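Hi there, hope your week has been kind to you so far. No rush at all, and the record is pasted right below.
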Amino acid sequence: MWDDRYRTPGFAYGTAPNDFLVEVEPMVPRQARILSLAEGEGRNAVWLAQQGHDLLAVDGSSVGLEKARGLASERGVSIQTVVADLKDFAIELAAFDAIVSIWAHVPPSLRVSLHARCVAGLKPGGLFVLEAYAPSQATRLSGGPKDPSLCMTTATLTAELVGLTFERCIERTRMIFEGDFHEGESDVVQCVARRPTA
């Protein structure tokens, strides 16, 4: 599915970064080593690289990541990319200053494992940044999964991100304009959580 979506001309979700990521990026340490999950065509990773960060972008689509590398080159930055299924991707322990998860919707059993790996992959003081669709989004036509089990709530995240201190974790409705597939009023959950330094 994702290779087919990304093979179409242009960028399925646009080339501008996610609004929430832009809002919270100042909380990330300068020149951070950042892991971006389900990065797709690279809009978030490339923007973060433009802010001076060192990016590792992971996605299951080689087509998407090829476009990501092209976008990075066009904008004069470099990113590292890895084609991998998130169920198999080994996150290096205590290796990242930040891990970014924007619209990374996976089945609940995988999500529990993935989030545990994210917690372990953060350095002390490292930041986890997530925006995902809430279950009520499944009835909307503005984007996101139609299976509510792939979506998240604040309760989901506080239960799964054990070991992190939450600096923000809210559910809200907001307008999203990200290419052809995310457009209009949307129900989301937004999370910023930090691994304690001690």
Observations:
- The radius of gyration is 15 Å.
- Residues 108-121 form the longest helix (14 residues).
- The first strand starts at residue 33 and ends at 37.
